[in-house]
Amino acid sequence: MRANFPFVAVVGQDELKKSLLLCAVNPGVGGVLVRGEKGTAKSTLARALADVLPEIDTAEGCAFVCDPARPGEWCTRCREKAGANHWVKRRIPFQTLPLNATEDRVSGSLDFEEAVRRGRREFSPGLLASVHRGILYVDEVNLLDDHLVDILLDAAACGENRVEREGLSFAHPSRFMLIGTMNPEEGELRPQLLDRFGLSVAVGGETAVEDRVELMWRRQCFDRDPAGFDRLHAEETLALRRRLVAARERLPGVRLPKRLRGFIAELASESHVAGHRADLFLEQAALALAALHGENEVGEARIVEAAPLVLAHRRRDAQPSPPPPLPPPPENSEDDSETPEKSPPENREEREDAPPPPSPEQGESPSQNRPEDADDGQSGGGATPEENVFQIGETFRVKRVQADRDRQRRRGSGRRSRSRVSQKQGRYVRSGPDLGTGDLALDATLRAAAPHQLARRGDSSLAIVLAPSDIREKIREKRLGNHLFFTVDASGSMGARGRMAASKGAVMSLLLDAYQKRDRVALISFRRNGASLDLPPTTSVDLAGKLLAEMPVGGRTPLSAGLSRTWEAVRNTLSKNPLARPIVLIITDGRSNVALRDPGENPLHEAWRLAAAMRQDSRVKYVVVDTEDADAMNFGLAAELAGALGADYFKVNDLKVEALVNIVRRSEW
Amino acid sequence: MSKAKPVYPFPAIVGQERMKLSLILNVIDPGLSGVLIRGEKGTAKSTAVRALADILPEIPVIRDDPFQLSPDDELEILAEIRRHLGLAEDAPIVRETRKVAVVELPVGATEDRVVGSLDLEQALKSGKRKVEPGLLAAAHRGILYVDEVNLLDDHVVDVLLDSAAMGVNTIEREGVSFGHPARFTLVGTMNPEEGELRPQLLDRFGLCVTIEGIADPESRVAVMERRAAFDRDPEGFVLKWRSESEALAGRIERARRILASDVAVEREFLFRIARTCLDVGVDGHRGDIVILKAARALAAFAGRNEVQAEDIDKAAELALPHRVRRQPLMEMADDLEAVRRKKKGMES
């Protein structure tokens, strides 16, 4: 194995080093979430920490890293051997969670060879077994599939990995130090997950030239002679290890004066944190910090020192990291798991019968959230009826817009709508024969083979004789990206009263969201006498953003042309890729005053007729974003259009995650 | 190799000096971890990468080893792999030398093809495991070339990132897992109009060059003439360029030796690197380290034992364009000098 860069030789990153040491001293501190730039020695430090920590005792070759001091937790093998066990010293486990890890690989699965050869139902341990008593490093934790994150955090929280699937019911201890990294620009972490990390640290590159030079210098020395570099720092590493061991021994005796509990609670409530995890983690961190400094009692200063690490990611009014503002309160989870399944179809029915009545919530929220600055900026723009290019207004975090579920299996990537997938990623939901994925569902295969065993058993040396007809393969489900079609009304009426800036802000927000969810996007705009496909479907969300910024506004409103151009683009996509699930987002005030063909027809009625026709294809989902101000005279034209399309209907402000409560309430209603 | 199908000679590529240089630097120091070539269609991107085979050095390998292990320092791993696969551990090890391989990863490649696969059907029948090595095994100690890297499936990208980060590829099926070393130089080409790369993947490329079609009519004519000559008589064309190819290959070989025997960098140059990175604003420190490595490779290529200021500047131009800090949905900086001027302007 190649040598690791020594912990003590890393330049700077003091906060991260401190957090890691706290976790190493006190497992109760609950893991570290590292937020920030690439290439800042995050994984180097995590890896190096494993070298600093003292070696542990375990049975030779034990896949569960059993602890001799806890016979109650031993695995079957260790228990069978009991006294005859050869305890050996080993470096503490360090595991990186692979980006393409499957559930089997993480939590373990049925042992294939054992089952087929000897007919025994054995558990084949996964990552959570081999990382017991060690460090689990999860890079880009915010990009991980939800179900995997759940497994990790469950194990981290209860110190145990429970497997209840594939006919297995098994549990083994799994206590590890969780280190996660994320780049907030790539999407936020779900708030409940965020809360489960005890500490968080923001890292950045060193800004002093001398430090950067020192860093390069050391790196160069290390590359030339890793072993020699390691020797050079051996003494310092040893001193750090002694300090850690001493701190661990001291920890149980460190006291926290009662009056300081109140102080902790005060600090937590000052930061408006949700729940009580913050208080608990802060206490544990302060204890660890005191132990690390060789103190027997926690002082106020230690609490103050630990507070930023514990509170930064829980603070509710925290500084928004532009562009996506900080995550909302935990209600978000509902939008993630349950609502999408139930609500959209029901929604649709309702909308059809009665266009949404101006509900009381609607009256409140938009006026509150209206982007003031954008409004001001536009007052001049509204006056001139000519063509204008408006700035992009305020952006915000948008709620999840996703396609309805179906039974089609797709290939692909991304993070928007749930779909069955024909690839070895995602959650194992069912099994079936002859899927051609080569993704064997062992449990189902064995079940299928079971009835034939008496008849098949000839001279085979295997315990179970399988025939090709027994093979069952896994049906998996994961989120995939969609094709998003943005149809933007760029007519003169949109220029009024800052509407275009707000609308562009909304589209930009949706684009940022599309970037994080890896969608393909297309951009269609309509104004004056026609509509144009400004950007055919592409993964380059960048380009869409640029075109949006440059999109001019002016002229009359050919809504029908916009709809028909959109439909053409959607149909093209569907004929190329019949399994695609396009989502069409129409950003408009619903007005229409240019007819497509027959000048005699009422342009508005023509548009609605087109909309009703577009609705016929059930593969396409429509969303209408109404740009009309709620407080102005409300024509309800966009709602009317949404009704004709069978679309979900939102006001710009309803798209914001903050407005989520309103939407949930309304769809129940 | 040479009999199968002649490759276009590397030195015969007209212009595109930065692209050629960045490829050469990666051959001199595989530690540079690859290059991303951005540019329009038909700018000799793929030709250049394939032509690399023309000038690559030879490395020692083990005969009939599908994992390209080094007979010098990976024998332990070989023993382990043999044990794992139930092969004779004491089978004789025959040393031979072979050119560094350029392995092409097609955009439509399945995960199995890339990672390799375990033959479960075989296992079902006999209870024994059989491994079919994938492209990552073939690319160990070589060059992995991905055309249209921005169109690659996300799950294949994940696999690449994992191997690039850990230097190990794991083949996994039904709880049966098998790992082998996979350290490769990643060379990707892309047309930015078709979408950008994920930031993590972008960061894995040591160098990045943006190329354009050649504007100079004379050079354009030269491109056409050479291409036509090659198509007419590939063997003859290769023969005509042989001496130049060999000269370049020799120069690269020399540079590798110089680099191995150490190229000195004075401390003042480290300051120059750090200041450059701070000036343009890059994330983290990978930029600094890559510039340092690239500068040393440049010096070695020039046959020098010490790095000069011009090496640093040239290296920065290759190492930084894709690392300049930017928000999502912002364009990539193509011109480093412009970025620096802009930053300076904002400060003053």
Précis, in short:
Chain A contains 26 helices and 23 strands. By secondary structure, chain A is an alpha/beta fold. The interface between A and B is large, with 70 and 59 residues.
Structure explained in plain terms:
The complex is a heterodimer of chains A (669) and B (348). With 669 residues, chain A is an alpha/beta fold. Chain A folds into four domains: 7-55 and 91-240, P-loop containing nucleotide triphosphate hydrolases (Rossmann fold); 250-318, Helicase, Ruva Protein, domain 3, CATH 1.10.8.80; 332-404 and 481-668, Rossmann fold; 419-478, no CATH class. In chain A, 41% of the residues lie in helices and 17% in strands. In chain A, the strands form seven sheets. In chain A, strands 19-18-17-21-22-23 form a six-stranded mixed β-sheet, with helices on both faces. Chain A starts with 13 loop residues before the first helix and ends with a helix. Chain B is of the alpha/beta class and 348 residues long. Chain B folds into two domains: 14-211, Rossmann fold, CATH 3.40.50.300; 267-347, Magnesium chelatase subunit I, C-Terminal domain (Helicase, Ruva Protein, domain 3, Orthogonal Bundle), CATH 1.10.8. Helix content of chain B is 46%, strand content 15%. Chain B has helices at 17-28, 45-51, 75-85, 111-115, 120-126, 135-138, 154-166, 199-204, 217-232, 234-260, 267-280, 286-301, 309-319, 336-347, and strands spanning 35-39, 58-62, 95-99, 102-105, 116-118, 131-133, 143-146, 168-173, 176-181, 185-190, 207-211. In chain B, strand 8 (168-173) and strand 9 (176-181) form a beta hairpin. The mean pLDDT of chain B is 85. The chains are: A alpha/beta (669), B alpha/beta (348). Chains A and B meet through strand 5, helix 5, helix 9, helix 21 and helix 22 of A and helix 5, helix 7, strand 8, helix 8 and helix 11 of B.
